[in-house]
Fold this protein.
Amino acid sequence: MARQIDSTEILLDYVRDVSFRDDEILRELREETALLPGGATMQVMPEEGQLLALLVGLTGARSVLELGTFTGYSTLCMARALPTGGEVVTCDITDRWPDIGAVYWKRDGVDDRIEPRIGDAADILDELLTERGAGAFDLVFIDADKTGYRTYYEKSLALTRSGGLLVVDNTLFFGRVADPQFDDADTVAVREFNSALAADGRVDISLLPMADGITLARKR
């Protein structure tokens, strides 16, 4: 039986050469983000942005919820993949970083598909449940503070329709989740989230060893 191969830089370069599709707007947003403090670490890999767009298309999503906008690269990727009339509601604790992305959303002509919300993610999720009701979203992307993952997941699950998809980023967390010597709050939170999700019979799951770990959870 074939095993998971090591992702060397040479192999990753090959994958990008044969599968990654780039353009000027995406590239310029990545470059500006990389100049920010922690920007290169916090931004999703371009391949992950492309995967998110593919998942939006595959699920036929019209309503997308994103927790953790940062500079809006993943927001842009998902908004592009929406059909006419589709919407991404994207949430961040500050408008400092989403304001950077908004320039690129407008350049790309998808700003009318994006609704930024600023504030505590748990509070925004409660507001959305009140405003829109359960099952209002087709796809949810969670990429926010790690200690809040279990709370965000529970609230997002209520907001996701049956058959909808939750995508959770950083579920391998630099590989630390598999190393017991790491016991910082973020690593422990992701580790506990992964264990809880593995036992959650409300969803079908798959943890992809891509980027920093991407978990797909389809609501039953």
